[in-house]
Amino acid sequence: MLCSPLHFACILCYNVVIMENKIRVNKHLALKTLLYEQKDFGLTPIFFGFEQCVSNQKWGPYSRDYYLIHFCIKGQGSLNDKFGTHQIKEGQFFILRPNEVATYTADPINPWKYAWIAFNGQEASAFNSLNSVCNSPKGLGETLLDYAQREVYSSYAYKALLYNLMYQLNIQPQIEENTALKIKRYVDLNYMQQLSVNTISDYFGFDRSYLYRIFKNYTGKSVKDYLTMVRLNKAKAFLQNGYSVSDTAFMVGYTDPFNFSKAFKKFFRKAPISEKKR
Fold first, then answer.
1. Is the pTM of this model over 0.85?
2. pLDDT digits (tens, 9 = 90+) for 65-85
3. Residue 111: DSSP 8-state
4. Domains along the chain?
């Protein structure tokens, strides 16, 4: 069965998914480099849309690598996920989490109209604390529907809607993720100082193993590797702007130009002198 002709989804780049002889079209938000290529350290809206479904219209079973929330504007339907089968009615929303298989189906008599928003980001895991189906804060689903119908292109509008949902439901980003973000910002702002894993651990009052675990879980890198990456990427820019190898080494926190050159060559597979303007 094809999706209803009243189906509509907003914004810029089309992504067509064909499954079980159904075609679903989503238009992705602008700034597509934010989508999958890099994770925002807050919440990253990916796409949104709305649809008036027909009787028994089904989507799934399917999994995805992002979070997807559907607000039921009117009508009703059902969701089947790993937690069981859930009946959903007007004024509720359901959430689909990354890598979880789910199927959702419109009611045969009173099929739903819903609006959806997909998102990712390091704070998105805060939504893991929710049940599969929740009562929607008043007006949020209608706001999303209004944005979609008016083709509002600002990603800030959808971020604000998601954060409003978090606030209304009193859900918070995980503490460890906030801590990892603070560590990241500290390194970003102080890479030129005499930083090491020990000095960073002492500054935040954590032992090395705990520091390693929360930062690795959050960024995919160890603190040491992240510090090295930041320093050497900054160094590359300094060299390209005409600074000497020795000056660059000291500017990014190395006390020994030889050790800096060795690290640079290992990271970029070429000597730092090759980056200097000729």
1. no
2. 999 999 999 999 999 999 999
3. B
4. 8-169 (2.60.120.10), 175-275 (1.10.10.60)
